[in-house]
Each structure stands twice: as structure tokens, then as C-alpha cells.
Amino acid sequence: MSGPGTGSLLEVEGLSIDFPTRTRTVHAVRDISFSVGREKVGIVGESGSGKTMTGRAVLGLIRPPGIVTARRMDFDGIDLTKLSEREYRRIRGNRIAMVMQDPKFSLNPVMTIGRQIDEAYRVAAGAAAGAARRRTMEMLKAVRIRDPERVYKAYPHEVSGGMGQRIMIAMMLVAEPDLLIADEPTSALDVTVQMQVLAIVDDLVSQRGMGLMFISHDLNLVASFCDRVVIMYAGQIVETCRASELHKATHPYTRGLLASLPRVDQPVERLSTLVREESWKTEPGVDARNL
Amino acid sequence: MTASSANAPGLRAWLTSETPSSPLQARCIQVYLGWLGLARNPLAMLGLAIVVCLILAAIFAPLLAPYDPIAQDLQRRLLPPGTPGNLLGTDELGRDILSRLLYGARITLYVVALVVVTAPVFGLLIGTVAGYAGGWVDTVLMRFTDIFLAFPRLVLALAFVAALGPGIGNAVLAIALTSWPPYARIARAETLTIRNSDFISAIRLQGASPLRIVTGHVVPLCLSSVIVRVTLDMAGIILTAAGLGFLGLGAQPPLPEWGAMISTGRLYILDQWWVATMPGLAIFTVSLGFNLLGDGLRDALDPRSSR
Amino acid sequence: MPATSDVSGADMALLISHLDVRFGRGEEAVHAVRDVSLTVRRGESFGLVGESGSGKSTVLRAIAGLATDWTGRIAVDGEDLGRKRSKAFYETVQMVFQDPYGSLHPRHTVDRTLSEPAKIHGIGNVGGRVEALLHDVGLGPEFRFRYPHQLSGGQRQRVAIARALMLEPRILLLDEPTSALDVSVQAEILNLLQRLKHEHGLTYILVSHDLAVIAHMCDRLAVMNAGRVVEEMDVDQLRRSQPQHNYTRQLLNASLGYDRDKADSLLTFD
């Protein structure tokens, strides 16, 4: 096991998230370790696998009664486990940004879209109003919004879901964060827009050295877009590999998921279905810090 | 199928079964789970206890009351609380206040029950029909509702009672007539969010008539918010009834209505404070009980918070 | 637009010609479907593919009678449909919705959801049919008296499919039936739909944004964009990557995964 790699932006060791309920405790995430460098790391799993919780925990967004424990959670030399809520707020949106599944809940409904993006940029870069406006327009154009002037002045309820998602992405990227946590950021978008938005994120990673945690259920997309893949099942990491080698994955869960996908070019009579083994839940997880 | 559930040990197992075997059991399990949610809230349980006490007091008033509530004894008038034989004292005609309060619970409950079986049912009907039908039906029904909503409740009740003559029945009618519009609005708002959902589209595609859709599919979903609102409104209804009694337009003497009791007690408020205070405390306690229960029900019944 | 006229009336399950659907009136009106013509043969699986806002779901809702403001011609089994649908129509055409969390009444048990159509249409032996259909969609009798919140997404979708089959329809409209499900559950539901099609002799009209799902399930498909059908083809053409229209080619390309260079070459079609 190599120590904290010099290229590593986020280093997580032994992260667990528990939700105590009236009758028992739900272990949403169980003792996982992973790292994100200046690269695109895909976190893949089905609903309930704990992938979304993992992303939220890094940002300190797990609310009581949820309990987060970690042996280590370092972001660029900062110990995230020791941060107060105030210190966390300085990092959130500025150095670590998050794009959520549903944009409608993440935008302020009584502020124009332009003002919200301006503000995000001014807080992050300390820029003047004029510069912020120029940067906002650039960003709106970059996420392929056709009429940025109109959208700048619009309120969140006046735009469609897909456009709201692109606006969220623009707002998160305008601050040029070091780490972007994207939770199913493009699942509400049409495939063509999805490709274009991913290209923007891709460029930020390759040109500015941003780190990306890409949380998704879409195996094909993660395999073609990310550098590294982490596969989660029932709160644990069951496998990790280079994205380009996902088709060579060995864990029966990963293999099962891949096999259950219909394909345009390979017709089958019946899709193979996943038979879940009880042992997947009990076997020790995989350390996804080094590869 | 029924045998397997009968073999399971005890009622608790039957109520917590993951695999109910009849519609009745499925429903009982839902009620039981709702009850568990409510039971976790101590304030709601306090409210429930107060309401249960009110009901018990009303049912068993003849057994619990030490005296006849309207029997006068002028030699024992205006005795302070704690007097042997008159725990809460006596009023200006020597009537035992405790006995009058216990019998007064019957009148309060009577008012509450009559309002509950009329206003919310009517409001629910108007609201769901307006919301589901839409178009001109909606417009007509909701403007009709607005007209009633624009009347100040107590003033309309006063006018009503003044026209039809004082009495508890007329007071209830007046309260019911002025309290249904909020239920209609709630029901309509809920219906508007429900009517475009897929499960309503699905039942329309099964060829269900609008009547069946409204009664079988829309109303059950509006019911919980209306029940919560009714429970919270109960305090206001009791207060309105007491207010009418206080003004001499509700229950007529010598009926032991709490509001009327305060009204006569105010003549003695400086020297014999208990005559007005005891029924006042009763009204306060019961109103609080309904409010606490209503808050608890809102938390337990709201399908959004139960996930 | 080539309205496929080579199909004889006898084995035609569904015919749509020059269908236009609008929402709203005046300047606010949205012209969701423009001049769509399709034919679906009996026993066929027909796919409608397109991105959000392409009008594919609206076509389905117009067939089902849920979108009423349409012009043109819709005929099922050779009989023209009006705005109002008869009881017989509901016994012929049924629909499965996209969101399994929204398509079941939250306060009704599985039993009530399934038996209601039978009660509306006065079909006897309701209990027996409910149990048989639950078995058919792969759910045990223990599910019969559960509420939707006690079921997983896949189980809910199975219940929704059972409900659609309760009246023994011949045509099933499937509106993105698996897009809200995990891939492993999607495979189970697609397999189930394939099996039910053979067992019940059904005709499917499947709407999806996922070309792979359409390719797996369907014999023929139509690609929609901005309310119009831009291309109609059979699935072999799709598999051989031989779409004629640029939009279809782009959709096919994008569905194969991310490629940095490809992203720049994407066009917007309106």
C-alpha cells in the first residue's frame, strides 16, 4: 500500500455511514477507502449501494441522525474530519463543488439565474461585477445554452429540467473548483447534450487538473468517460479497475451488471439477469486508493 | 392462507406481519404502524389523553358528578374550591362546578361531533369535485366557496342565531356553515396535485368513471390532511361555541355549557374568581388537547414525512 | 412521410395517420406532435425512440386517450377512435407507465390495484385472476396484500404490468417502462415483457430514449425529433448501424458512449 500519493487530491480511509432507526441501524456505507487524484473517478452502483451517500459525506452533507466515521479523510492537506460547519462552508462550492441529481432543489427560486452564477464566481474569485457577468455568460454558452442573455435574467422555475441541470453545472464550474462531485449530473439530459456537458468537464480535468468524482449508475458511460472505476455494492467497494478495462472485470457482481445490459450491436434472445450472492455483502471490501 | 396467520403467536405478530393475507389485516397493519408513529410523540399522546378524558367525562358524567348540575342550593352559593363536597367550589346559585363541568363536556362533545360530521364532509366533496373536474365546474364551486370564506365566522353565527333564535342546534349549524370552506380549499389543492399523477391516468385507462376516481382514489389521499386540519380547528370550534354561549346565543340556561358558565361567572370575577376560571380552564385544556393531537397526527399521517 | 401502406387491414393492430397533438391554446400552445403517421402490425413490437420533448410519449398518450387535443386519425384493429373511448377500447389497449413510484396508488394494496379493473368491467372470479396474474409476473401470493411502499421499484413495475394485463388487452403501450430502474432490474423486466408477449400474444408499442432497449425489444422503430418522425426502419438496419438520417446516426453514436472528439461534432436538430 502506497502512502498518500503526491498526485492525490482526496484521500479517504475507512469511511462508514450509519443511520440508526427505531429498530436497527442501517449501514449505508461500510468501511470504504478510495482516493481521487487529478483524474476522473467513476463511482458506480445500483440504487441503495451507498454511492450518493459517499459523495455527500465528502462534502459534510450527511445530516443527523446519520453518523459519519472515517479513519482519514484528507482533501489537499486539509483534514475534513476535523472541520467545523463554518470551515466546511468555506470549502463547499469553492474548492469542492457538487452537482446534484435534481437541479430544482439546488437553485434559489427567488433569485435570477444570472445573479446566482455571478455570486458564485465573485465569492470564489473575488471578481468585480462586470467581470463576473462576462464570465457567467461565457459559462452559460459553454454548457450549450442557446440564449444566454434570456437565461441570465430568468428565474429557475422558468427553465426546463434539462436546462436547469446545465445551469447548475455552469454554476459549479464557474468557481473552478479543485474537486467536482457530480451525482448523476447528466441522467436528466438528452444523450447529445450529455456528451457536450461531459466534454466541458473533461476539459477542466485535462487542462486545469481538476479532480472529478463521477457518481453514476450508467456503466457504459462511466467506462467510456472516466479514467478509473469504483464499483459499490451494499455499501462496500467490491471492485476497482481502469475504466478502459471494465469489460475485463472479475467480480461476479460487476460481470453480472455488464451482462444484463442490452446492446445495439449484439442481439440476444434473453438478457442475462443478476443472481445476487449473500457472500458479496459479507466478504471484505476492496481498497480503491491505489491502482 | 388464513391458517398461517392464525398460527403466528399473538396479535402483535399479526399486526407486524410482512405478508398480510387479507385486506383487513393489511389495513390493520397500516393503522398499527400509524399508531406507533403517533405513540412516539409524547405531546400528541398528552393531547390524545385529554381528548379521551373529555369523551369519558361526557359518557360517565352521571356516575362521576357528585351533584345534579342544575340543582340549586342557595345556602351553599359561591363556595371556594376545596370546600368538602364541592371540590371546585360552587357558583352563584349554589350549583357544584365540577358537576357542571362534567355535564358540560357532553355539550362540548355534541357540538364538536356535529360539526365534524358536516363541515369536513361537505368541504371534501366540494373541493375534490372542483379540483378533479376543473374548468367551469371548478370556477363556480370555488367562487361559491370564496363567498362563504369571506364571512367572518362569529358574525355570521351571530346573525344566524339572531334570525333562527338562540339554541345549541342553531349555533352548531352556524359554525358548520362557516367552517367548511377551508376544507374545500385544502381538498382542491391536494386534488390538483393528485389528478395528473400516473396512478390516476392508469385508473382512467381502466375505464373508471369520474365518480369512482374521486371517491375511491382522490378522496383517500385528501383525507389525512383534512383530518389533521379538522383536529387543529377543533379548538377554534369549541371556542366559537363557547363564545356564542358567552354572548347568550348558544346553549341556554340552565344548561351547563362552558362558555355560558364563564359569562355568568364574570359578574363575580373579582371576589369569586373560580366561577369563571374553572370553565375557562376546561375550555383551555380541551382546546390544547385537540391542538397537540392535531400536530401529532400531522406528523404521523403525512405521507411525505413518513419516508 | 411514407405512411407504410403495404400492410393489409386484417393484420394491422394500430394505424396512425397525420396525427397532430397540441397542448394549450393561442400563443402559449405547444405543438408536441406534428404530422406523425405509423402502422403497427399485430403481434409486432414497435419502438418509438427520441429525446425528451421529441413527442414520443405524447403519441402514446394520444393513443391511450389521455391527451385529448389531437387531430388526425388513430385506428385500433381497423376501428377509428374518437375523443371519448369506449369500455371495449380499454379492454383492447392498456398502458404501463414510466415511474413505478408514481403509477400505483399509495394507499391501495396490490390486491385492490389489480382487482379494480375487473370490478369496473364486471369480470368474475377476481381473486383467482389476481393470484394468477401475480404468478404470471413473477410475484408470489405473499405480495397480494402489500402496499406499494413495501415493494421495490422492480416489484412495483411488475404490479403495474399485471394491472395492465388484468383486462386481457391485445395491445400494450409501454412508456419508458424500465428507465427508472437499475440495469439488473431492467433486464428482469424486459425479459418478463418478452415472455408475456409470447404467452398472451400481445402487440407492444414501446417508447424509450434508450436505443439499446429498443433494439433488444423491437422489430421495427421510428425515430422522433421535435414532434416529427424523422426516420422509420427495422431493427436490423439499426444493428448494422445503417440509419439514413443524420439525427439517428448521431443518437446511435452518442448511445455508444462518451468520446471527446465526437462531442464537438454533435449538431442540434430542430
Task: Report the span from N to C terminus of chain B.
Answer: 30 Å
Give the SSE order of chain B as H and E letters.
HHHHHHHHHHHHH
Mean pLDDT of chain A: 85
Main sheet characteristics of chain A: 6 strands, mixed
Mean pLDDT of chain B: 85
Here the CATH topology of chain B equals MetI-like fold
CATH architecture classification name of chain B: Orthogonal Bundle
Can you describe what's shown?
The complex is a heterotrimer of chains A (291), B (307) and C (270). Chain A has 291 residues and is α/β, with parallel strands linked by helices. Chain A has a single domain (38-49, 85-278), classed as Rossmann fold, CATH 3.40.50.300. Chain A is 34% helix and 24% strand. Chain A is globular and about 60 Å long. Mean pLDDT of chain A is 85; it is low at 1-6. Chain B is mainly alpha-helical. Chain B has 13 helices and no strands. Mean pLDDT of chain B is 85; it is low at 1-6. Chain C is of the alpha/beta class and 270 residues long. Chain C has helices at residues 56-64, 87-92, 110-120, 126-136, 153-165, 183-200, 211-217, 235-239, 246-255, 260-265; strands at 12-23, 30-41, 45-50, 70-76, 79-80, 93-96, 171-175, 203-208, 220-225, 228-234. In chain C, the strands form 2 sheets. A 6-stranded mixed β-sheet of chain C has the order 6-7-8-3-9-10, sandwiched between helices. In chain C, helix 3 (110-120) packs parallel to helix 5 and helix 4 (126-136) packs across helix 5 (153-165). The relative contact order of chain C is 0.16. The model of chain C is unreliable at 1-5 (pLDDT under 50). The chains are: A alpha/beta (291), B mainly alpha (307), C alpha/beta (270). At the A-C interface, helix 7 and helix 8 of A face helix 6, helix 7, helix 9 and helix 10 of C.
What keyword list fits this structure?
heterotrimer, A: 291 residues, alpha/beta, Rossmann fold, six-stranded mixed β-sheet, 12 strands, 34% helix, globular, disordered N terminus, C: 270 residues, four-stranded antiparallel β-sheet, 10 helices, 36% helix, ATP hydrolysis activity (chain C), EC 7.4.2.10 (chain C), ABC_transp_ATP-bind (chain C), nucleotide-binding (chain C), ATP-binding (chain C)
Write the layout of secondary structure elements.
The complex is a heterotrimer of chains A (291), B (307) and C (270).
Chain A: E1 8-20, E2 25-37, E3 40-44, H1 51-58, E4 67-69, E5 72-75, E6 78-79, H2 85-91, E7 96-99, H3 113-125, H4 129-142, H5 148-153, H6 161-174, E8 179-183, H7 191-208, E9 211-216, H8 219-225, E10 228-233, E11 236-242, H9 252-259, H10 279-282, E12 287-288
Chain B: H1 2-7, H2 10-16, H3 23-39, H4 42-59, H5 61-64, H6 97-133, H7 135-150, H8 153-164, H9 168-195, H10 198-205, H11 210-246, H12 258-265, H13 274-301
Helix pairs in contact in B: 3-13, 4-6, 4-13, 6-7, 6-9, 6-11, 7-9, 8-9, 9-11, 11-12, 11-13, 12-13
Chain C: E1 12-23, E2 30-41, E3 45-50, H1 56-64, E4 70-76, E5 79-80, H2 87-92, E6 93-96, H3 110-120, H4 126-136, H5 153-165, E7 171-175, H6 183-200, E8 203-208, H7 211-217, E9 220-225, E10 228-234, H8 235-239, H9 246-255, H10 260-265
